[in-house]
Amino acid sequence: WGLSSFVGNSKTLQKILHEIRRLQNFSSVNVFITGESGTGKELVARALYFGSTRSSGPFVPVNCVAIPSELAESMFFGHMRGAFTGATIDRKGYFELADGGTLFLDEIGDMPALLQAKLLRVLEDGYITPVGSSKERKVNVRVVAATNADTDAQLESGKFRRDLYFRLAQFPVVLPPLRQRTEDIPLLARHFLRLFATEMGVASSSIGADALSQLRQ
After folding, report:
1. Spatial distance between the Cα atoms of 83 and 90, rounded to a whole number of angstroms
2. CA distances from 131 to 73, 111, 187 (A)
3. pLDDT digits (tens, 9 = 90+) for 30-50
4. Looking at the whole model, is its pTM more than 0.85?
């Protein structure tokens, strides 16, 4: 999950790796990663975590799309026993589970508006209030957010809060699609060929020049 997991020699990729190295030294800076599906957003988030001083703490990945809106507040901030029907025990939310480490919010562009406001408050003062509790709890969490949505369009339409965006995007990272760094394709092809051959327990074959040329196209 570190920098060694990235494959490629293109100037574009090297620039991204340079940014990751810088950010590893500033483990309190929130990072906002944008890019199409499959460009490696979670890979960047995990590299930021594993190379930082927070690597001794937890890494908590959250798929914001998969969270039911009616349970979102409880899942992010926790709840107390009896706070609602079915709350039979106290339960920590994602922020408490990630305390001292990194919280990765994937597909944050789909987060409900009400939850965006509550998330903004946590980022501003570092305190959460579990559902059903009147007492605040201090948390120390680095947030790395990611989305494949058109962030500019979401900000313009009001679907995503500008104040929340600026809190999350203390350092933005833009990941280009592979079609914009085609010089990395041969290295990636060889990497996956070796990987799959190892998994299947067969000898790895080479890729001919003609095949590599077709891949670039």
Report:
1. 9
2. 7, 18, 49
3. 999 999 999 999 999 999 999
4. yes
